[in-house]
């Protein structure tokens, strides 16, 4: 880009104010400077454009033809600068729409929401939850928290948050009867993840255990609630299990954790990568996820060492 020979911005502002008011005194009041300062800036512009900008009469100022042209140009330029600056402020504080799986929202996001409000009090978010993976498309929202293998996708920015690893849980009363025999206890199923039990049992070297039968539920969350009510054993996502363990609703029924290649991820279209509000949310949730993943990883390591 070629270099532009521009007049000083303070001289442009002084001239534009004087042209708008047709008064040096009123321009000086608006800009909180002296009338002499405004006059000097105007004279400097006149020298630069090599033409008078005002006709100075006893009744006040009148714009010359050159002054009219410059006044129109400077007013438009300053308006565009003001609009651009206002737009930056609006983007920084604008309301975000975030699509989230309901289970992730209830077990991870909402318990941490007070910290988000404390950390970013000016950040407003419209939260949209769904059980349907087809609803978690970045194009529908500013960003989504979805399930993915975290591989790069054209046109998307993907940030892994939490790994998805499954572990069986049950009400505390079940373990009072001793170590569970998975062939003889009710296995509760989450319909969106129909293969979870088969995969976990095979991983735990319990491939002989059948998975037919057993009640099924609309979501993992409902299956865990059913387990907490004593109806049987459910598979939980380890990284989202802390609230249920903390309130004593369920306990871990077996030390085996089955890892997967899938993660909860934050996804957004690449065109929004520099959005200030989205950057603030992404930074916050990534920090929360890192803090939550560390204890879960340590607990998994301890269980594997004692297995």
Structure description:
- By secondary structure, the protein is α/β, with parallel strands linked by helices.
- It folds into 2 domains: 9-93, Arc Repressor Mutant, subunit A (Orthogonal Bundle); 96-301, D-Maltodextrin-Binding Protein, domain 2 (3-Layer(aba) Sandwich).
- It contains 10 helices and 11 strands.
- The strands form 3 sheets. Strands 3, 4, 5, 6, 9, 10 and 11 form a 7-stranded mixed sheet that branches.
- Helix 1 packs across helix 2 (24-31) and helix 1 packs across helix 3.
- Residues 298-307 have low confidence and may be disordered.
Please give a handful of descriptors for the protein shown.
307 residues, alpha/beta, Arc Repressor Mutant, subunit A, D-Maltodextrin-Binding Protein, domain 2, 7-stranded mixed β-sheet, two-stranded antiparallel ribbon, 11 strands, 21% strand
Helix percent band:
40-55%
Domain count, please report it. Answer: 2
CATH structural architecture of the largest domain: 3-Layer(aba) Sandwich
List SSEs in N-to-C order.
HHHEEHEHEEEHEHEHEHEEH
> Total strand count, please?
11
CATH topology of the largest domain: D-Maltodextrin-Binding Protein, domain 2
Task: Please report which band the strand proportion falls in: under 5%, 5-15%, 15-25%, 25-35%, 35-45% or over 45%.
Answer: 15-25%
> Mind describing the biggest β-sheet?
7 strands, mixed
Secondary structure tally, helices: 10
Q: What is the C-alpha radius of gyration, as a whole number of Å?
A: 32 Å
The CATH first-level class of the largest domain comes to Alpha Beta
The end-to-end span amounts to 66 Å
Contiguous uncertain segments of 5+ residues: 298-307
Overall 3D geometry? rod-shaped
Overall average residue pLDDT: 87
Name the structural class: alpha/beta
């Amino acid at each position: 880009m070629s270099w532009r020979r521009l007049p000083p911005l303070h001289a442009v502002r002084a001239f534009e104010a004087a042209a708008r008011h047709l008064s040096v005194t009123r321009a000086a009041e608006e800009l909180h400077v002296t009338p002499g300062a405004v006059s000097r800036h105007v004279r400097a512009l006149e020298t630069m454009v090599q033409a008078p900008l005002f006709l100075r009469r006893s009744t006040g100022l009148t714009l010359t033809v050159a002054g009219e042209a410059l006044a129109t140009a400077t007013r438009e330029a300053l308006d565009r600068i003001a609009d651009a600056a206002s737009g930056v402020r609006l983007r920084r504080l604008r309301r975000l729409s975030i699509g989230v799986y309901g289970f992730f929202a209830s077990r991870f996001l909402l318990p941490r929401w007070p910290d988000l409000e404390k950390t970013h009090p000016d950040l407003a978010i419209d939260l949209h939850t769904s059980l349907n993976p087809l609803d978690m498309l970045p194009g529908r929202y500013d960003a989504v928290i979805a399930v993915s293998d975290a591989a790069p996708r054209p046109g998307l920015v993907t940030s892994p948050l939490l790994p998805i690893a499954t572990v069986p849980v049950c009400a505390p009363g079940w373990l009072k009867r001793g170590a569970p025999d998975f062939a003889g206890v009710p296995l509760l199923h989450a319909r969106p993840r129909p293969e979870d039990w088969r995969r976990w049992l095979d991983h735990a070297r319990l491939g002989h255990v059948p998975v037919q039968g057993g009640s099924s539920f609309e979501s993992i969350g409902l299956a865990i609630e059913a387990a907490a009510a004593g109806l049987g054993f459910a598979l939980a996502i380890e990284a989202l299990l802390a609230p249920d363990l903390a309130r004593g609703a369920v306990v871990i029924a077996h030390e085996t954790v089955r890892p997967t290649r899938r993660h909860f991820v934050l996804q957004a279209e690449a065109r929004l990568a520099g959005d200030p509000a989205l950057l603030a949310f992404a930074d916050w949730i990534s920090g929360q996820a890192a803090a939550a993943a560390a204890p879960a990883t340590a607990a998994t390591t301890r269980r594997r060492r004692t297995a």
